[in-house]
Every structure is written in C-alpha cells, then in structure tokens.
Write a structure and sequence with these properties.
193 residues, globular, single chain, 71% helix, mainly alpha
Length: 193
C-alpha cells in the first residue's frame, strides 16, 4: 500500500473511530479500535510525523478548535479536493462528475473566503497540491472521491458540534450538504466500475 493510500485509509479509520467514539460518549477512541486499525493508525502517524497534517485529517487529529482553525482546516480541505479533482480530470481524461464538483468546490472556497473577510482572519499560505492523493488507476478515482468526501463531511460534523456564529454555521451546513451530494455522485460512479 503506497503512502497516499495509507493516508486515505487512515482518514476513513479515524472518521469511523471518532464517529463511534462520539456516539458512545467516550473520549478514548483507541478503546474501540480493532487491533488492525490501531496498528494502521500508528503506522500512518509515523508516516505523518514527516508530513504535516492537512485539512480534514488535521481536523480529526484534535477536539478543540478556534474559529480561525476551523476555517483554516476547511479551506485547506476544499482546496485539496479542488486540486485532487483537477489532477484526476487531467491525468485520466474524465469529465463527469468532476467538472461539476470542481465548480462546487470553487464556490465552497469562495464562501469560506467571505468568512475570512468577515472575521478579519488572514488565509495562511499553503500548497494543497503537495497533499493530493494520486490514484493508480481509473477504477480508483471514484473511490478516492468517496473517501475524500467522507472525511470532509466528518470534519464539518465535528465543527457543527460547536457553538458557532450563525453565519459560520450556515456556511458549514451548506458545505456539508454539498459534500453529501458529491459523495452520492462518487458512489454512483464507483458502482459502475
């Protein structure tokens, strides 16, 4: 399993673990992890000690956020999705559903940038393309989309559990809804392959 696949797998494992942990009211996700999942998390954490956590994976690594951190993780994840889907379209010469989803990701970014302006935060400089997961084959591209959207939805679920200003809550709810729609599109495409 290459490093990028391991990172995506970790995102799925962590999303499941935190969702179950939250539902069960536990603060120790490791208590409910299968041994294989715990070993994978440890292996990925060792890999990620060399790579900075980014976007949804960074949001899943902590339970306390400032509003600025939420916006940072959200914009990183939206830009990561945009970069990933643009790469997939170019490399695999596919259009749908990526062309439509790219337009949505651009509007997601714009909504987040508006919040940055409203709250007077500065967008930090980062390169989303360095975090892109590169699929090995055409058949994997939709699975990568599914995994990315699941992680994105989990991030927004986590943020929405906070007491947020109304405008921020509306944007996060809209972005989560968009990601749910993207997830459905990717799942439909994935079943075709």
């Amino acid at each position: 399993m290459n490093k990028n696949k391991k990172i995506v797998t970790l995102l799925l494992v962590l999303t499941s673990v935190f969702t179950v942990a939250f539902a069960q009211g536990t603060k120790e996700p490791a208590q409910i992890m299968e041994p294989e999942a715990a070993a994978l998390v440890e292996q990925i954490n060792n890999t990620n000690s060399q790579n900075e956590l980014f976007g949804a994976s960074a949001a899943q690594s902590t339970d306390e956020f400032t509003l600025e951190e939420m916006l940072q993780y959200a914009i990183e994840d939206e830009r990561l999705a945009l970069a990933e889907y643009e790469f997939i379209m170019k490399e695999f010469n596919v259009s749908r559903p990526f062309s439509n989803i790219i337009k949505a990701e651009q509007s997601h970014e714009k909504a987040l940038l508006n919040l940055y302006d409203v709250y007077g935060f500065e967008v930090s400089d980062f390169d989303a393309t360095s975090h892109v997961v590169l699929p090995d084959s055409l058949s994997e591209i939709y699975d990568i989309g599914v995994e990315a959207e699941i992680a994105n939805i989990a991030m927004y679920d986590k943020f929405l559990s906070y007491d947020l200003p109304d405008d921020v809550r509306r944007v996060f709810e809209a972005l989560k809804k968009g990601s749910l729609n993207h997830l459905d599109s990717f799942k439909k495409q994935s079943t075709k392959y």
